[in-house]
## 1
Amino acid sequence: MQTLTIRRPDDWHVHLRDGDMLRAVAPFTARQFERAIVMPNLSPPVTTVAAASAYRERIIDAAGPGFTPLMTCYLTDEADPDELARGHGEGVWVAAKLYPANATTNSAHGVTDIRKLWPALERMQAIGMPLLVHGEVTDAQVDVFDREAVFIERTLAPLVRDFPALKVVLEHITTRQAAEFVRDAREGVGATITPQHVQLNRNALFAGGLRPHAYCLPVLKREEHRLAVRAAAVSGSPRFFLGTDSAPHVIGRKEQDCGCAGIFNAPYALESYAAVFEAEGALDRLEGFASEHGPRFYGLPLNAAQVTLERGETEVLPLIEAEGQALVPFHAGERLGWRLRAA
Ligand SMILES: NC(=O)N[C@@H](CC(=O)O)C(=O)O
Ligand SMILES: [Zn+2]
Ligand SMILES: [Zn+2]
């Protein structure tokens, strides 16, 4: 097969940031995807309908025509059910995002105790607004590699039980436990999967030295987990869908004493996923994962347009500079075997 034409995909988890960084990265996402679920972890976080509408306009300006940002509400301990319902009703918010306080980048205003969210979750369940979850406990006693599995046990499993009709997406899954939990859960539970978590295991963090550009949260896990998440991605199950978690930080913030978590994978995300599906003999399932499972889960229409991937070397630059931002992309300096044909 020399070309692969699929329905135009969407990215169900991306960080587009704001200001110069937004202008630098939004065109990469817009080139690859028709829609994207935009994470609200700006500083300050996007907690009001007004802030989300204004942010949406800035994204549309930066991305150019043909791209639709789908906005999310950042949940705090003070999350107001009426504001959530209003934003959802007005078509501004597609979903709301739960960051356990201090679990990841810009999550200081996140939720300190899930019980504080109950009124918000009740309303979201009633109106059919999905809950997106950064699934890691923040308990310093828990080993950083176990934080996702412990979160599932302590928080997610009870939540999925207590809110039996709430749509829940476990974002950027990294473990066998997460893949199995989502696979076996009740209806209305899904997961996004990033390109890095199906291609790298935690050895990548220490390959010949400390590798800040392989550092993201949840952190890469053992090989056993990579294989389980990879199997879920290519399984064809509608519960698993594409979410890059592209999370740009300028090079200086990655390469420092306390480097930021996040991998900037937007520029070649599709080429990267295609390599995985091909290696697994599952290229015929790429379209479901990239373009169908997500919209069906969210209850949104499938995109009508198509894109074509063609076989051919794509050279990933070691450094991408745009709008004064210097970013090291995922696969920096490598060659990928597929190329997204220009629209
Ligand atoms: N994934 C990351 O490592 N970082 C994300 C936050 C997140 O998605 O948890 C970021 O905003 O930089
Ligand atoms: Zn996260
Ligand atoms: Zn993220």
## 2
Amino acid sequence: MDSDSKAEAIKRAKVLMVGAGGIGCELLKTLVLSGFQEVHIIDMDTIEVSNLNRQFLFRQSHVGQSKAKVARDAVLKFVPQIKITPYHANVKDPDFNVEFFKQFNVVLNGLDNLDARRHVNRLCLAAEVPLVESGTTGFLGQVTVHIKGRTECYECQPKPTPKTYPVCTITSTPSKFIHCVVWAKDLLFAKLFGDKNQENDLFVPSNNASDSVKPTDNIIERGSDEDPEQYSRKIYDYVFGYNIQAALANEETWKNRSQPKPTFLRDVLPEKDILHNGILESNCLIDDLSLSAMPFLGLSNPQEVWNLAENSRVFLKALQLFLEKREKDIGNLTFDKDDQLAVEFVTAAANIRASSFGIPLHSLFDAKGIAGNIVHAVATTNAIIAGLIVIEAIKVLQADFQNCRMTYCLEHPSRKMLLMPVEPYEANKSCYVCSETPLLLVVNTRTSTLRDVVEKIIKNKLGMNLPMVMQGTTLIYEVGDDLEEDDVANYALNLDKILADLPAPVTSGTILTVEDFRQELKCHLNIKHRDDFDEEKEPDGMVLLGWTDGAISNGQSTSTDHQVAVGSTESEGIKVATEVSGMKRELNNSKTPQDVEDDNDEDDDLVLLDNHSETNKKQRLH
Ligand SMILES: Nc1ncnc2c1ncn2[C@@H]1O[C@H](COP(=O)(O)OP(=O)(O)OP(=O)(O)O)[C@@H](O)[C@H]1O
Ligand SMILES: [Zn+2]
């Protein structure tokens, strides 16, 4: 390919960039400096202070503004002649449909979550537009090219699922600090500040009928005459004192474990400290995300490990500040690692619990990393990955498909290489996304409802947003804005019906057709009845089998009835696989600092995959 035709291909190209964060900023800069003339950018976020260290197109004064728009303005300052169209929106919005995608020559992803990546993959397949996918975690990174009919699609191979923990470990028997963080974040924080009606296993049921202390959900309700300090003290004693007493009452649990020690406020903080803690100063109101309990308590170093008394003061103060300064947020909050008060609250709560269970306490800095599942981003990795995306995009635009590579950016050299190019893999012939291979759903058709299947399988595992479900020629479920009222009522009724009792019964041997029109994705589920499921191993109470031998996991970080998952990582679901010395390896890229701590005995970050596993068998393109 001569350089003129290359320049011409670049000049003519119309490119869609999804994500204007760490990778996106680098990518936009590299695109325009490489001569690209027309770039559309979708990003749903606004700029946060924590982005500024690496998302170099943004400045302090831009905090709160649209990433896509500010990125455009910043780049136009040094290359004013370029056409850049920003969209401050979610790529899953209906406006970005197949027709929208068709106008582009190539789509470049700089996303941070599996859900959006899967959605873009499906639209690229439907629109037949090549996709260059990317991701980074710390020093690790990856760029892959997905071209319909030529390579595998993004979903041809299952993605690693974030670590989940059995609920009983989180609620009753934590043994690691991360268990306490998950409890503080996904149970306590969610119960106090999120949707109160949501089922949650925060309170341990006591099996001792005569027990006079029975924490209940009502405890969370704040009485009209209860001041924030009283309320915070009550919550403290219930969650760290009575709740652990209730857990201790289940004697079987402690036969082979050391018993935790309930923590009551009166034992930790003398009365005068509590009173001191209750004094609010008036000059503390800054913006919501920066509000902090630490300055009130003379604490300034996030890397210092607070003792139990300090953690208790932070807990009380943070809870009081939420009640007094952020009352409007209560009921709608989800944990956000950029929310200082939320991080302080979770750190303190996790530490107080850790202390009861004899687990070493951690600093706010460490707890934040674990709670946000953060592997600290490395700007240089993003820059390298952005460069590789542009290199692959140019090959795609020149139709130089045989030279396309998927490239891994490694932390340690392998065969003296830090950048490891691998030929793209062939499509998995039984991928339910890019082929029409049916999936198998093993389910108890006599106890599971249609809602279970829609929520746990069709939305959660298959990643469909607006699914339609058909049994033969009968439509049993559909969502959309243009439905008749009668239909909506009918579908709502169907959702709560047991599968076998549906108007068109779903039993062993039934084939369900599920379809998401927006993603132009259709697949078939062969239903097989089974009576029993293992609560720990099959927490959904049903198993989806299909294009791999194993059960399908979507890598989503949702908490289910039986599992509590750690939050998502910046590069959730990115799979890094290389062939090194004839071995197929996967870089474990979704590590929490705790995992890293746990994995310290490994030589490096490479985790060997079972070399004979069918699941990981891939075929090279020739
Ligand atoms: N569904 C989506 N639609 C549009 N943009 C998305 C979607 N999902 C994620 N993004 C964008 O992808 C970008 C990913 O960037 P990055 O990984 O640097 O994350 P970040 O949120 O900027 O940083 P961090 O998570 O480390 O604070 C973000 O700007 C985010 O808004
Ligand atoms: Zn596929």
